[in-house]
Amino acid sequence: MKNKEIILSTKSLGKYFNEPVKFKVLDDINIEAFKGEFLTLVGKSGSGKSTLLYCLSTMDTSYEGKIYINGVKVTGQKQNQLSAMRNADIGFIFQFHYLLPEFSCLKNVMIPALKLGRLSHEEAEVKAYQKLEMLGLENQALKQSSKLSGGQQQRVAIARALINDPAIIMCDEPTGNLDSKNTQVVFDIFKQITKDHNKTIIAVTHDNDFAANSDRTIELADGRIISHDKHFD
Amino acid sequence: MKKNINIDIALTHIVTRRRQTLIAILGVTLGLSIYLFINSLVSGFTNFSREEMFKSSPHIKIYHDDEISIPLIFPKDSTEIVAIINPQITTLSKKIVDPEALLKRIKQEPYVVNAIEQVSFDLFYNRGQAQINGFGSGVDIFEYDAMFKTGKTLVAGRLEDLQNNLNAIIIGSGIAEKLNLAIDDNLTVTSSFGVVKRMKIVGIFTSGLTATDNSKSYVNISTAQQFVKKGSSFVNDIYINIPDPDKSDIYGARLRQLTTYTVEDWKTTNADALSSNRTRNALMNAISLSILIVAAFGIYNILSSTISQKINDIAILKAIGFSGSNVVWIFLIEAIFMGLVGIFIGLIAGGIFIAIMSNVYMGGHIGYFPIKFEGGLFASSSALGLFITICAGYFPAKKAADVDPVEIFRK
Ligand SMILES: Nc1ncnc2c1ncn2[C@@H]1O[C@H](COP(=O)(O)OP(=O)(O)OP(=O)(O)O)[C@@H](O)[C@H]1O
Ligand SMILES: [Mg+2]
Question: I need a surface site. Which of A56, A120, A185, B144 has the fewest CB within 10 A?
Answer without folding.
Answer: A120
